[in-house]
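Reagents: none. Just compute today. DUF3986 family protein.
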Amino acid sequence: MLYDDTRHLHVGYYENGYDLEAVALKRQSEDQWDIFFPFEQYGLKPAAQENEVSFEEFGTRIFSIPIKDLDYQLGSKKFEEWLSAHRII
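Predicted 3D structure written out:
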């Protein structure tokens, strides 16, 4: 999978004493953003996933958002929903 190295977005959750961040990378030639979370940085263990994609500098892909242009508000909202669904927050 190839990513557009000129387009990425940092998203975060900073409420209730948490300081959690993820990075969204835009796929090349697709209206799709993949969200990566550095589990180890936060002392968490990722759940084993089939077809897992990881990068040392960004972490493990946790979900994707099918959209042409992702903004901070939507990215952070989806990240918060993912954190809640996985009982991290």
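Residues 72-85 form the longest helix (14 residues).
Action item: order primers for follow-up constructs.
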